[in-house]
Amino acid sequence: MRRFAAVSWITIPLAGALVLSGCSSAKTDNSDELQIVANPVAAKPAVSPAVTVKPAGQVLASGAVSALAVAEGTLVVALAQPPSLQLYDLNALASAPVNMPLYGKAEKLTVAPGRVEIAEPAQGVVQQLSLPDRKLTETKTGGQPASSIVYGADRLVAMGAAKDIQVLPATGPARTIGGQLYSADDVVDTGKGVVVLDRLRTAVFSVDVAAGTVGEGLRAGDGAANAVADSYGRVLVTDARAGALIAFTASPLIMRQRYPVPGGVYGIAYDAQRSLAWVTLTERNEVVGFDVRGGEPVEKYRFPTVRQPDSVGVDEKSGRVVIGSAAGEGTQVIQP
What we know:
By secondary structure, this protein is mostly beta strands. It has no helices and 28 strands. It has a domain at 69-264: YVTN repeat-like/Quinoprotein amine dehydrogenase (Methylamine Dehydrogenase, Chain H, 7 Propeller). The strands form seven sheets. The protein has a four-stranded antiparallel beta sheet, with no helix packed on it. A four-stranded antiparallel beta sheet has the order 2-3-4-5, with no helix packed on it. Residues 1-26 form the signal peptide. This is Lipoprotein.
C-alpha cells in the first residue's frame, strides 16, 4: 500500500487557493486571482499506455465509454458512438444489455432518486432515465448542458460555456444563476451547500440557489477535472494536472485537504455506505479506493483496469466498482 504526505484539515484557504471576492466578476486584466494562465484550457485525462496487467474482475465488451453510473441495480453505460446507453442488470451481467439510442453523446450521468440524469451538450438536451422501468424523457435546455442534478423539487443544470446554472422547477419558469464563472462544468449538492466546478479557471464556487447568486471561489489545484459530494458535507475534486485529491467544505467554502495522488488521477465516484472515494489513474490504468473518513485519505484498494479508465461509478449496495474504457476496451466490474 502506498502512502503519501498530505495537507490535512486546513482551516484557512491556502495561498494558491485564493478567495475571490463575492462582488468581483470575470476579469480581462491580470488581477484575476483564480486565472492561472492567459488562455485557460480545461484539464484532460492523461493518455493511457497499453494494458500490461490483466484488468481485475469482469470486463464487459463495449465501445468507447463516455460516462457511466449505477442506480437501482442497473449499470448504465453511455457509449460515444453511436450515442446510446447500454443497460445491464447488475446481478445478471452475463445477460445481453438493453440498448437505448440517445440524441447525442452523453458527457455526464448523475444518479438521482429513481432515475439517472443524462447531459447531452452537443444537442442542448438533458434526458432522464427512470428506473427500474427504463423510460427516457427529455428536457430541452438549449446551449451545452454539462451536468444535471436533482435539488429538492428543482433540477440544477450546469450550462458549460454559457457560464451559468439553470434552475428548472417542477412547475413555472426556469431561472438562471450566473456571474464570475468562465465555464459551469458540474454542479454538486453536498447537503450543506451547492458548489459549481469551473474547469477553465480550475476552481470551485459556492452557489446560493435561493438568492440566485454565485459566491466565493477557490482554486482547485492546477487542473480540476471531476467532482463528487461525500458524506461529510464536502466536495471532492480530482486535480488531473498536479495529481491530487482535494476536499472542500461547501458552507463556508474552505479547502480542507489536498492529498497527492500520482498517476494521472481523473475520474471519481463515491460510496457513501463505505466512505470510499474511488479515483481512476489514467497514466497507470488503475483504480484506487480511498477511505475519506479521517484527517487524510487512506488507501484501501488498488486494482488494474482497462485502458483509458476515464469513467468510474460504484454500486453502494454491493460495493462493486465499475470502470469505463474511453478507448473502447470494455466496461469493467470489480468486487473489492
